[in-house]
Design goal:
By secondary structure, the protein is α+β, with helices and mostly antiparallel strands. Helix content is 41%, strand content 14%. The protein folds into two domains: 98 residues, Up-down Bundle (Methane Monooxygenase Hydroxylase, Chain G, domain 1); 130 residues, no CATH class. The strands form four sheets. Strands 5-6-7 form a three-stranded antiparallel β-sheet, with no helix packed on it. It has a two-stranded antiparallel sheet with strand order 1-2. A two-stranded antiparallel sheet has the order 3-8. The longest helix has 23 residues.
């Protein structure tokens, strides 16, 4: 089990749960089955917490196998000694494990999942399913848009001179509204841009990733831009935006755009 790439916090928690599992085995060997059962259940709960924090891979599968064996030991004690009063350990509601369970349960809103923000979101890795990932986050087009739709094209293909963001170039009067129902969205953009110009704030870009050294958005290596918001108790990835934009006839952009400055809002 190679732990060198894991955080010190993870290694510490893993060592803790391994110690608990060892204690459970010793108690079972010594015939203290009630204590052994309690420790087995406690170790399984802590292993499950660690498993949820891992990306898919060999280590995750190893921990799943270990927790499954520990659970089987607990179930064997319970089934073979019905005369015992076996109870799971009292859960500490303030523990990181219990808080994680609450945050995981609260990630579902109106049937959509908003997963807690992870450092891995800042360093995405391309894989064979990457094209399907991009396609899955393309927004639905309205009937009118579908009639005019020509193709999806990356921002750079649509206009090689486009920039993701230029802090001193944005002006509300430059925004081109493509859809009449986007009024409130355009108004919100205008307010945020003006606020940034007058108070040097980043309200309109603070939540958008990836970022460059200056703290402003930069080009994404995997073509997906991510939005981080504080939602239901923690920071979550609430939205993914593709680098692809929809084009209509004559190669016109079918999205919010700017009249000048060679920039684009990839929002529909």
């Amino acid at each position: 089990m190679d732990l060198r790439s894991l955080s010190p916090e993870f290694r510490s928690k893993l060592k803790e749960v391994q110690t608990i599992a060892s204690r459970a085995t010793r108690q079972e060997t010594h015939g203290d089955y009630e204590q052994a059962f309690s420790l087995y259940v406690d170790s399984v709960q802590k292993y499950l917490y660690l498993i949820r924090t891992l990306q898919d891979g060999p280590l995750k599968e190893q921990l799943k196998a270990i927790s499954s064996k520990l659970l089987n030991r607990a179930e064997r004690i319970k089934s073979s000694r019905p005369e015992l009063s076996l109870r799971a350990p009292v859960r500490d509601r303030t523990s990181s494990e219990e808080q994680d369970v609450v945050l995981q349960r609260s990630q579902k809103i109106n049937g959509l999942s908003f997963h807690p923000w992870s450092p891995s979101h800042l360093n995405p890795v391309n894989d064979p399913s990457h094209p399907s990932q991009l396609a899955s986050i393309q927004p639905a087009l309205s009937p009118a848009q579908k009639q005019a739709f020509l193709e999806w094209k990356s921002m750079k293909e649509a206009n090689p001179s486009l920039e993701v963001y230029k802090s001193d170039a944005l002006d509300p009067t430059d925004i081109v509204q493509d859809i009449v129902t986007d009024c409130s969205l355009i108004a919100a953009f205008s307010v945020l841009i003006n606020h940034a110009k007058h108070f040097q704030s980043q309200l309109h870009t603070e939540c958008l990733y990836p970022k460059g050294p200056d703290g402003f958005p930069e080009g994404s290596t995997d073509g997906i831009y991510r939005v981080k918001l504080f939602l239901n108790g923690t920071e979550r990835q609430t939205l993914r935006i593709s680098r692809f934009v929809s084009l209509k006839s004559f190669n016109d952009l079918e999205c919010i755009s700017l009249r000048k400055h060679g920039m684009i809002f990839s929002l529909r």
